[in-house]
Amino acid sequence: MKDIWQAPVGEHLDVVVTAGLPPVPLPDDAHVEQLIWHGDPFTGRLRASVAARGSHTVTVRIADGERLVADVRIRRGPARTPGPHALLRTDLRPGAAYTRLFAVTKDVTTDHVPGAEPLLSTPSMIAFMEDTAADILRAHFAPAAASLGTWIGVRHTGPANIGQAVTVTAVLADVRGRRYLFDILATVDGREIGDGQVAQTLIGRA
Description:
about 210 residues; mainly beta; 12 strands
């Protein structure tokens, strides 16, 4: 995969996609910065193409026919070692987790489908996810620190009705300076209704 840094956006790459991690072979002196799964586990022959590029990154898109499977962002250079940020009182490393319960009330539902029962809206589910991720950071804030949601990549896969409780679990997956990436899962009575990733970025308050 020596031409990954020169291949035009949209061009298919002549690589063998594997089921392991990372799912594509890496060029020398490069590492996977982010891996986002969009589909179910794959079994067939997959193809890879260049989806986007930056000055030091390339995003490789993996598809099974017309079905999008994953996006893999590859960055030049060795992976950076996470370390404590000055805006945190205590160190925070990948693996830190937190779970919260959210009640489904009328004000977090959508009723835009005539004749259908009101259901938890996607924006409300995302808000639950972002708030749970932020709670992991809040326990470590230094004075005058805060965080903002800066990236969302989630799927809303099932319904939640008024009166039900949504369980949201966030697990810190990666640390990049001020940016903290979380794996998120939302369930109702053990049934998955949403999953994906969100990012929070530390800021200083006046």
